[in-house]
Amino acid sequence: MGRSLFGEEHEIFRDSFKKFLAKEVTPFIEKWEEDGIVPREMWNRLGDNGFLCPWLDEKYGGSGAGFEYSAIIIEELAYIGSHGLIAGLHSDIIVPYIYSFGNEEQKMKWLPGCATGDIVTAIAMTEPGTGSDLAAIRTTAVKDGDSYVINGPKTFISNGIHCDLVIVVAKTDPHADPPFKGISLICVESGTPGFQKGRRLNKMGFHSQDTAEMNFEDCRVPASNLLGKEGQGFYYLMQKLQAERLVVCIMGQAMAEAMLDMTIKYCRERTVFGKPISSFQHNTFKIVEMATEIELGRTFLDSLLLDYCEKKDIVKRVSMGKAWISEMANRVAYDCLQLHGGYGYMEEYPICRFARDVRVIPIFAGTTEVMKVIVGRMMGL
Ligand SMILES: Cc1cc2nc3c(=O)[nH]c(=O)nc-3n(C[C@H](O)[C@H](O)[C@H](O)COP(=O)(O)OP(=O)(O)OC[C@H]3O[C@@H](n4cnc5c(N)ncnc54)[C@H](O)[C@@H]3O)c2cc1C
Fold first, then answer.
1. Which band of pLDDT confidence, cut at 50, 70 and 90, is reported for residue 3?
2. Assigned CATH class of 8-119
3. Does the beta carbon of 169 sit less than 6 angstroms from any atom of ligand 1?
4. pLDDT at 4
5. What is the pTM of this model?
6. Is ligand 1 within 6 A of the CB of residue 206?
7. CATH dotted code for 235-378
8. What are the counts of helices (DSSP H) followed by strands (DSSP E) for the chain?
9. What mean pLDDT, rounded, does the chain reach?
10. Quick check: 309 and 5 in contact, CB under 8 A?
């Protein structure tokens, strides 16, 4: 399918990124999965080749490119099954907080390292006691002279081990009414006393993705590490969460496309009862149904991408997209694995890893149910 979103220059960029992946990433995915983490230096390899934060202004080390380039990076990584190296989380979800809400001093201090890969970022919202209900976080950041003193546990934090800089979502006013008005975003550098990286979490899928607990215990940071204004953190999160959902839509859609492609190839080659399994009418229909859903997802997603690139508000539609594409990708995973028979259950067939990795797509960046709550509210229901 031709995609009006991308012109010739984008396709040249896509080709060069694919070459990079074929050499530097694909041969190592299995090893990283076994190790449970992608090596730290991969972030610098991405940065050295211009594949981190391509949208950043040149003065901060980027190339001032449009979001289309980010979309290419996210979808190609997801398509090859490198689900552990989630460049989009750093480049397109976390770094934009510093870019949009940081002051010039903060930007000059951190953004160039974010583009080279010298600084890997994380965002710590979720806590053991709360995930979907962000306003209920209990981590506090108490002002003490020229510092904030942060206390509280965080969990499920992507890039939790490798991160050099984490944006901590904390309550600077625990008594604010309503509670979301007391939330602020504070940057904490790795190595700050009181900031402990916890255990790397053992997950169902995304084995090579660095996901960890963190703890802040009397962690003192300069008050100048506050991003934007005190008490505005929740509003900043609401502004940026649409980009987070878009990134996850891109991942889910690319994973669905990859699963279907590998399944069609398998079904054409696998012969049972003397015929390729793709030729049994039930299987042909299954494949056609999946191809149709995937095409619908692609059409919708590309329309979201176009609107996002044109700076339109996509909150409602991207929440619909996150809910629908996530669930569609999981339906596709189930049926594609089934079409592989017993081989689908074997690690040497990539469908096995894709099917378990895709399970998290309807969970992180806001669950399917939370997406529906948001859309329902926006529909006045
Ligand atoms: C691999 C991975 C990486 C992650 N990375 C990060 C990260 O980098 N930073 C970070 O801060 N967090 C991260 N998370 C956390 C993730 O965003 C949360 O897990 C997610 O938001 C859900 O929160 P929860 O797990 O606390 O579930 P809960 O909020 O406890 O929800 C449990 C169930 O209740 C449902 N539910 C909740 N509210 C409603 C409602 N109003 N109506 C109907 N149903 C509802 C949910 O949909 C879900 O099915 C990550 C999670 C995973 C698994």
1. confident
2. mainly alpha
3. no
4. 87
5. 0.97
6. yes
7. 1.20.140.10
8. 12, 10
9. 97
10. yes
